[in-house]
Amino acid sequence: YGSTEVNVPLISDYEVTEPGIAGRPVPGFDIRIVDENDRDVPGGAVGELVVRSSEPWLLATEYHRNPEASLRLFRNLWLHTGDAFRKDAHENYFFVDRIKDYIRRRGENISSFEVEREVIAHPAVLECAAVAVKSASTEDDLKVVVVLKSGMTMEPDELREFLRPRVPRFMVPDIVEVITELPKTPTGKIQKHLLR
Question: If you compute the radius of gyration of the chain from its CA atoms, what whole number of angstroms results?
Answer without folding.
Answer: 18
